[in-house]
């Protein structure tokens, strides 16, 4: 996802780390191996430096026992969704964020239907020399599609979720379809806008081998949305692909957005962003898995 495969894991640490004569602030840590007891003090010589909200699947987090973090999946029929509390909403169990079963967004007229969710599998990274973390979730995510997308997936009917996950061509077909699909990110803690963009930009940029002036302009526009903008807990971020080369970005700290913050028109940028979440090495494997489960249910 971020270049060479890393042989390390992101480990949730339950307490600050003592290093030398100081106690560090809780931050982020990568271990080559997962300790038997993650609350124990860590040997910093075993850590790898990294800085990103969006981490690779080779840095999968360790979930403390007895916590239900299984992602939910859904049918495009809201009445049959596995929602908690209401057929109109589906609750992501780890963060308790509720996602609407259907929604309308600014910039286009089609309604979108919920296809899958996941809890926040990553936390912000910090450019520090001392590495420690606490098990803090940053965001919950959901993926929505124009219901007509599923009519383009007949060749995958009857396949299991595992088979869908192994077949990258299905997610490629979803992306290439000139129908709307949107990723909703809901922050469950405050995040600095620059930190958010730096992490997202660091995930996108390696996927664009030779950026064109159009790509550079699109990235600059994308960056300007977040630079200098505090992203408070509860902020909604929508990344909506209208077609393979055009994407809308909407950010709102007060529920669903009423306007579009920016339009990104670069095939390389939009493709790379989709690959960040739904490519061969997605930053949130649980989200991709949840979507695969949803698709398998719909295509039975």
UniProtKB/TrEMBL annotation:
One Pfam family of this chain: Chalcone
Keyword flag Transferase: no
Domain of life assignment: Eukaryota
Molecular function terms, GO-annotated: fatty acid binding; intramolecular lyase activity
Keyword Cytoplasm part of the UniProt annotation: no
Gene Ontology CC terms, in alphabetical order: chloroplast stroma
Any coiled-coil regions, as ranges: none
Domain Chalcone isomerase: 96-295
Single biological process term from Gene Ontology: fatty acid metabolic process
Keywords in alphabetical order: Isomerase
InterPro entries in UniProt: Chalcone_isomerase (IPR016087), Chalcone_isomerase_3-sand (IPR016088), Chalcone_isomerase_bundle_sf (IPR016089), Chalcone_isomerase_sf (IPR036298)
Family: Belongs to the chalcone isomerase family.
Record's protein name: Chalcone-flavonone isomerase family protein
Native organism: Parasponia andersonii (Sponia andersonii)
């Amino acid at each position: 996802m971020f270049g060479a495969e890393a042989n390390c894991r992101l480990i949730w640490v339950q307490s600050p780390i003592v290093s030398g004569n100081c106690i560090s602030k809780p931050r982020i840590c990568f271990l080559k191996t997962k300790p038997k007891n993650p609350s124990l003090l860590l040997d910093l010589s075993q850590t790898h430096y990294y800085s990103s909200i969006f981490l690779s699947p080779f840095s999968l987090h360790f979930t403390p026992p007895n916590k239900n973090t299984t992602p939910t999946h859904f049918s495009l029929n809201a009445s049959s969704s596995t929602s908690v509390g209401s057929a109109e909403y589906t609750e992501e169990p780890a963060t308790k964020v509720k996602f609407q079963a259907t929604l309308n967004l600014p910039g286009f007229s089609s309604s979108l239907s919920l296809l899958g969710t996941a809890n926040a599998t990553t936390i912000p990274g910090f450019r520090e020399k001392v590495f420690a973390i606490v098990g803090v979730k940053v965001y919950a995510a959901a993926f929505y599609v124009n219901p007509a997308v599923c009519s383009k997936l007949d060749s995958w009917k009857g396949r299991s979720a595992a088979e869908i996950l192994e077949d990258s061509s299905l997610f490629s077909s979803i992306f290439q379809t000139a129908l709307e699909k949107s990723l909703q990110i809901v922050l469950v803690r405050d995040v600095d806008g620059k930190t958010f963009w730096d992490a997202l930009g660091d995930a996108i940029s390696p996927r664009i081998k030779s950026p064109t002036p159009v790509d550079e302009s699109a990235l600059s526009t994308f960056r300007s949305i977040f630079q200098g903008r505090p992203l408070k807990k509860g902020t909604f971020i929508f990344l909506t692909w209208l077609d393979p080369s055009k994407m809308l970005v909407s950010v709102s700290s007060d529920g669903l957005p009423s306007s579009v913050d920016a339009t990104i028109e670069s095939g390389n940028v939009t493709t790379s962003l989709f690959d960040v979440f739904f490519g061969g090495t997605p930053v949130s494997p649980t989200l991709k898995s949840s979507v695969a489960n949803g698709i398998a249910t719909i295509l039975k």
